[in-house]
């Protein structure tokens, strides 16, 4: 590799590291404090960067929000898939969705669903953020659908999509209600309901 190529490579790596630092810093702030309550200056201060550096990577706060949503979703999908796959094949892998949520709830920084928190703060006509959140939820339903297809034998006329949507709704309500009550009983009860649905 030539000296010029080495310099170019180092600059690209540094650029990527700075961008990731901004995303991770904004993610912590948005999730903890809310999208509207987090200002650009706060992100800049927490990330330890100059304002020009932030705008070199993101054109707007909305762009940072989209990167935040993507970062949270990629981490979530990877972690929940890995968690479920460690369970014995069969019903336990489907019910593990709720076990994962229980572990998530017990973390000190649990603050509900980042998607629902964000969509509740944006204007109704903000299609970019709403579309990203809708796509994330569709992908989660697809993950549930794959879990069902790989681990259950459906015994009645309900479609795979219907099962997946029902379990998705149980999961989402468990997230919201455990956050509201600051207790994990909604997670345990929705897991019980899910067990009745799939057996």
Descriptive account of the structure:
The protein has 199 residues and is an all-alpha fold. It folds into two domains: 1-58, Arc Repressor Mutant, subunit A (Orthogonal Bundle); 60-198, Tetracycline Repressor, domain 2, CATH 1.10.357.10. The chain has nine helices and no strands. The chain is elongated and about 60 Å long. Residues 3-11 have low confidence and may be disordered.
Into how many domains do the coordinates divide?
2
Q: Helix coverage percent of residues?
A: over 70%
Query: What structural category arises from helix and sheet content?
Result: mainly alpha
Q: Give the overall shape, derived from the CA principal axes.
A: elongated
CATH fold topology of the largest domain: Tetracycline Repressor, domain 2
Radius of gyration: 20 Å
Low-confidence spans: 3-11
Q: What's the end-to-end separation, in Å?
A: 60 Å
- What's the level 1 CATH class of the largest domain? Mainly Alpha
- Please report which band the strand proportion falls in: under 5%, 5-15%, 15-25%, 25-35%, 35-45% or over 45%: under 5%
> Could you tell me the number of beta strands?
0
Name the CATH homologous superfamily of the largest domain: Tetracycline Repressor, domain 2
Biggest beta sheet summary? none
CATH architecture call of the largest domain: Orthogonal Bundle
Number of helices: 9
Say what oligomer this is: single chain
Strand and helix order: HHHHHHHHH
Q: Average pLDDT, to the nearest integer?
A: 91
């Amino acid at each position: 590799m030539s000296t010029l190529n080495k310099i170019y490579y180092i600059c690209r790596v540094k650029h990527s590291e700075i961008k990731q630092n901004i995303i991770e810093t904004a993610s912590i702030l948005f999730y903890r404090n809310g999208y509207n309550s987090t200002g650009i200056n706060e992100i800049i201060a927490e990330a330890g960067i100059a304002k020009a550096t932030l705008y070199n990577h993101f054109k707007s706060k909305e762009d940072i929000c989209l990167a935040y949503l993507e970062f949270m979703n990629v981490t979530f999908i990877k972690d929940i898939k890995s968690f479920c796959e460690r369970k014995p094949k069969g019903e336990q892998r489907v019910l593990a969705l709720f076990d994962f949520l229980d572990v998530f709830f017990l973390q000190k920084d649990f603050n509900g669903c980042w998607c629902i928190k964000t969509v509740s703060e944006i204007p109704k006509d903000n299609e970019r953020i709403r579309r990203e959140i809708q796509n994330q939820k569709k992908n989660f339903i697809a993950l549930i659908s794959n879990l069902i297809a790989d681990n259950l034998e459906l015994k009645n006329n309900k479609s795979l999509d219907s099962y997946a949507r029902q379990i998705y709704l149980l999961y989402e309500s468990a997230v919201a209600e455990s956050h509201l009550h600051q207790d994990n009983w909604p997670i345990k009860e929705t897991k019980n309901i899910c067990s009745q649905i799939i057996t």
